[in-house]
Amino acid sequence: MTEARLRRVEAPEVRRAQIIDAAKRRFREAGFHITTMADIAKLAGVSVGLLYRYFPGKNDVIRAIIETDLEVQLDAVEQNLAAHPGDSAAALDAVLNGVAAFAKDRERTALMLEIAAEAARSPWVATLAAGIQSRIAALITERFGAGLPPAEIDMRVRMMLNVFTALALNTHDKPEDQALALKLTMQMARLMLGVEPREG
Predict the structure, then answer these.
(1) Cα–Cα distance between 191 and 160 in angstroms, integer?
(2) Do residues 75 and 101 share a domain?
(3) pLDDT(9) > 50
(4) Torsion over CA of 41, 43, 45 and 46, rounded to 10 degrees?
């Protein structure tokens, strides 16, 4: 296969990523409802007609952003758990550090606040986000839920994830408090799952 042919095959994926990146920037700046498809096309440097070839409507752009972000989170949790099959403390540390990295990303948090607001208004957004979040919770439950009643471990995992939501909000509003907030978040998350920190 020639280099030119490879470029033609890759171009649609690259263009789609450019559109999604542009939409994220615009949504952070103006919100979902004010943003138009023309706004996204202009920021992405494409025609409105080309934009509609990739995404039939604005809801499809929103769906792609949510799915991409949450799938990245899911992959990170899976990889961190798989990297430490026999060491629960190390596995939890890896998962917590991975989740914390997402929480400390201020631009991502700004976008997630928009998504959370949209979820409160749009049942399909809430259902989509909850579905992928439940997959993340299931992975954590499977690894750290031994010996606890199902209802209790479910609550513990959900509360642990909510602690990281609080970290994201705190980091966004008061970045100067990030170090202390992260330390307390890690302590609370370990407490929720009953896993002692690694020694040394």
Answers:
(1) 9
(2) yes
(3) no
(4) -10
